Amino acid sequence: MESPSQSSEPSRAEVDALEGAVVLEFGTSWCQHCQAAQPLVSAARAGFPGVRLIRVEDGKGKLLGRSFRVKLWPTLIFLKDGQEAERLVRPENAGLIKDALRKIA
Q: Is the pTM higher than 0.85?
């Protein structure tokens, strides 16, 4: 279900064509906010095995993050059949993530 950070990010067209429930997690491996959010994301996802997580290494010159107007990390974008249903920036508790997952599951 979980993909490691993508070394070559998917294109926006590929993301828009995704079917089902998907969470895009934009961030970096060295970001302290991203590291702090990992236990929250894992805890929230435990009840949603059918939701796919795609971690996207973001940064300067990364087109996918720019196309979603990502400004801060981590940014979680919840997609249902390629359409954004919810967005969380620097989530501080698993409950917020679970609420967003319910909208797409």
A: yes
